[in-house]
Write a structure and sequence with these properties.
single chain; mainly alpha; transmembrane helix; transmembrane; membrane
């Protein structure tokens, strides 16, 4: 059986009740601070990166669509495949060492 931490019974002892209340308050303060830090990290780091990736994906789709409308699809040797769409066409054209 797992070991459990025993807490004093606050019903009979007013000092034990005070200790339990103080312990709960410190846990709440730590939890609130951790929650604030987590939300700040999400807001300042993750959200701008996500929005930038979304913008770049939209620009890529728009540029490929415009190239098809203008007719430069054949000049750039871009081929369309139904099973992978427009993803990776630039990576296929560039050679990485």
């Amino acid at each position: 059986m797992a070991d459990t931490k025993s807490f004093p019974d606050p019903a009979g002892d007013p000092e034990a009740k005070k200790d339990v209340i103080e312990e709960e308050a410190t846990m709440d303060e730590r939890t609130l601070k951790l929650d604030r830090q987590t939300v700040l990290r999400l807001d300042l780091i993750l959200m701008p990166m996500t929005l930038m990736l979304y913008l770049l994906a939209w620009l890529d789709r728009a540029n490929v669509g415009n190239a098809r409308v203008v007719g430069s699809f054949n000049q750039l040797y871009i081929q369309y495949s139904a099973n992978h769409g427009n993803q990776g066409w630039l990576g296929k054209r560039l050679e990485f060492d």
